[in-house]
User: Which sequence fits this backbone?
């Protein structure tokens, strides 16, 4: 339902033209992967839902961290069995989205996780390889085995015989191959799920940046945008990524907004680095995506992360200055692990901005009629988005929050738990 009122304040100034007043049961903010999935699940339940996006659905970085050609999927999470279970359920939804959309959204490749076991190898473990640490592969193998998920344990010799792209260096003894892993076509998937949401009845409004949430008696009364005011009768779902803390300042105590450099190279031998021939290699390299580019990084190092004040984060520019030190460090590290990618031409350079929870878990909670969804990191948030969004959609329609129950909804997801950590 849409009407208009004669005047309201915009940016502190009176606006004398009619401003559309839109009533909806559910207003979802942010058309990244979580937002489109929430809109999809709500629409599939027959709910009245509008999805607001400041740019376009699956906008490219730095606007949206969902707007890249590929994100990694995996089930190996060390001893964290709950995240492995979330990944297993999420993969079933990724396959469902493929079936409903008729598009290929996932390329299986496997993920190689290196392990150091001998004392000499442990002593040589490189400082830049802070994640995943020694022991992670062994713990992951135990959980994958318990969950009945496909995987293999490979000696160094067996690993490089199977995947000659990988160097048999002195930093590892063996490796886990998580056979559930692969590449999700991220931007393509977000757009496909957005179309599925629209087909189910959701409305998506692009170029509708949210300026303010207006509260009355603890409830969000109005979602103010430059294109009109939206009045939710049931819930507002906040899934705006790095903009979440700006719209809900209570999150600043438990989140930090990180700018992460991402670098893409174009290997000469495309077949050798295709998902059918090459796995995701540690925290160093992806197989080539559908654009023929391989995402590479300096081994999980946080040295090149930029921590930002969300209140100073304006509309990000699409023009990005190349960080030459980051590129040089990445190539130097790749030379020890995947030398063919170390010399591959640079194809693209991007910076993604995303929120990271300080307690290392999800934030997924409801206060009055405001539901907030924040993943613990960018990559984890994408691969498990279907499950997080399913829980979020249930929270959005479940007014009795204290009585809310879901098999994968943990007490640690709540804001109070994050504040205590």
Assistant:
């Amino acid at each position: 339902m849409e009407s208009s009122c004669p005047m309201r304040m915009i940016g502190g100034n009176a606006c004398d033209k009619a401003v559309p007043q839109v009533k909806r049961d559910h207003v979802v903010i942010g058309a990244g992967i979580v937002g489109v999935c929430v809109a999809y699940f709500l629409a599939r339940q027959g709910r009245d839902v509008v999805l607001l996006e400041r740019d376009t659905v699956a906008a490219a970085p730095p606007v949206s961290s969902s707007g890249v050609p590929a994100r990694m999927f995996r089930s190996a999470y060390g001893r964290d069995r709950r995240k492995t279970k979330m990944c297993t359920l999420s993969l079933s939804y990724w396959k469902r989205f493929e079936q409903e959309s008729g598009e290929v959204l996932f390329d299986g490749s496997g993920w190689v996780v290196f392990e150091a076991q001998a004392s000499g190898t442990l002593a040589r473990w490189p400082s830049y390889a802070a994640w995943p640490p020694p022991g992670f592969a062994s713990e992951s193998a135990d959980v994958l085995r318990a969950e009945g998920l496909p995987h293999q344990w490979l000696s160094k010799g067996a690993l490089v015989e199977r995947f000659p792209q990988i160097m048999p260096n002195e930093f590892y003894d063996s490796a886990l191959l998580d056979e559930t892993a692969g590449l999700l076509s991220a931007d393509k998937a977000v757009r496909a799920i957005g179309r599925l949401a629209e087909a189910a009845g959701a409305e998506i409004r692009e170029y509708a940046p949210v300026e303010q949430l207006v509260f009355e008696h603890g409830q969000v009364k109005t979602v103010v945008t430059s294109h009109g005011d939206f009045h939710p009768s049931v819930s507002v779902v906040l899934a705006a990524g790095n903009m979440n803390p700006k719209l809900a300042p209570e999150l600043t105590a438990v989140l930090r907004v990180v700018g992460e450099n991402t670098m893409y190279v174009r290997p000469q031998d495309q077949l050798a680095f295709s998902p059918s021939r090459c796995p995701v290699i540690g925290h160093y390299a992806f197989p080539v995506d559908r654009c023929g580019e391989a995402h590479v990084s300096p081994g999980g190092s946080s040295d090149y992360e930029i921590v930002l004040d969300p209140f100073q984060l304006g509309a990000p520019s699409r023009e990005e200055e190349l960080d030459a030190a980051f590129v040089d460090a990445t190539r130097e590290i790749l030379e020890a692990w995947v030398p063919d990618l170390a010399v591959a031409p640079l194809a693209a350079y991007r910076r993604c901005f995303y929120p990271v929870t300080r307690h290392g878990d999800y934030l997924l909670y409801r206060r009055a009629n405001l539901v907030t969804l924040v993943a613990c990191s960018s990559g984890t948030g994408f691969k498990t988005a279907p499950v997080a969004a399913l829980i979020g959609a249930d929270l959005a329609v479940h007014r009795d929050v204290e009585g809310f129950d879901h098999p994968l909804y943990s007490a640690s997801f709540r804001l109070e738990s994050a504040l205590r950590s």
About this structure: Residues 81-101 form the longest helix (21 residues). The radius of gyration is 22 Å. Confidence is low (pLDDT under 50) at residues 9-13.
